[in-house]
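Deliverable D5.2: sample structural annotation.
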Amino acid sequence: MSTERGQQVVIDTTCTTIHTLGRQNGSEGRRLRYMQKDGRFPVVFQKAPGDWSPYLMDIFTTLVEIRWRVMLLIFSLSYILSWLFFGLCYWLIAYVHGDTEDVDNEPCVDNVRGFTGAFMFSMETQATIGYGFRGMTENCIVAIIVVTVQDVFSCLLDTIVIGIVVAKMASARKRAQTVGFSNCAIVNLRDGVLCLSWRLGDFRGNHILEGVARAQLVSYVKKPLGSIVMSYQDLDIQNRDLVLATPVTIVHKLEPGSPLYSLGPDDLLDDEFELVVSFTYTGDSTGMLHQTRTSYTPADIRWGQRFQDMLKLGKKHYKVDYALFNETTWVPVPQLSAEEYDRERCPVEDGQSHSLLSPSVKRNGHTFQANLDFTGEVMHQTSL
């Protein structure tokens, strides 16, 4: 490569690649992500103080979504408070009936002479322990009614607790953590076309037979008063309906109509957008609908790389090496946007064939000659 001032700089792109994109000026280049890598959104809803109505109206979903320690605390308190409440009812019945003062009086509940005995009887009744020391008599119809109400309430409370625990254990979020995307997206050539691609795999190997992949380009524009306007653009994906028996590579062609068609490796450094990708599928074990999602910023896009092959053919099985799921390797890719690359590849006059193979491109005040003479397919597809 010639570097003297005033001379033309020639770069052979068959041996040159662009490293991972990202700003180098520290905190100045940072921006708030629209979606975290684990699929969570850093969004906070501002409501009126004390407005808990959305959570109370859908209490079942609220209990399913809270943390395990909070849920266990709420369930423990619900049982303890119910024992205390009905124990207080039994003590009041015994107090009104005179069982706490007259030992010779025929009691409403045997061996319940104080609040401690009433609490123990309440707990034994609701938990169906039945020690046989305390028991209901026929002397007080009110006490019989309270025991009946407590039995019905106990069945209802057990049903709610068991249902919420089962729903929380079978949460779709936990299953979604076993299906993941690659840590980065890549740009390379596929059949002579620049493509943006990323990898998707099922780490449990449950062979998801039906799923739909989506991708959106998210960006925002700041308004003078500090507000922002979000914009969303759908990306066209090849083979949107996927069979995830083996890891697959999701491909978006950088062709006319794509929001990234005019962006080259240098342009991506100055552009601010986020590629939000998702995979919605039905679990084969539970039949529940799940969704796995993540996002890629320009710093997560690797220009001029491809994923390493992780699928091999054995004697009786297809072997998948998930240790290579996020591994990439360098491949020859032109340092051009897809628009520039397509324009330079278009047929011109016969006498300009040399210019077709070595188109001139301006980068940072210099003129470069990019060699676009690629023989064969430079990208080996790793998905079935």
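Annotation notes: Residues 165 and 321 are 35 Å apart (CA to CA). The chain is about 30% helix and 25% strand.
The annotation will be released with the project's public dataset once the embargo ends.
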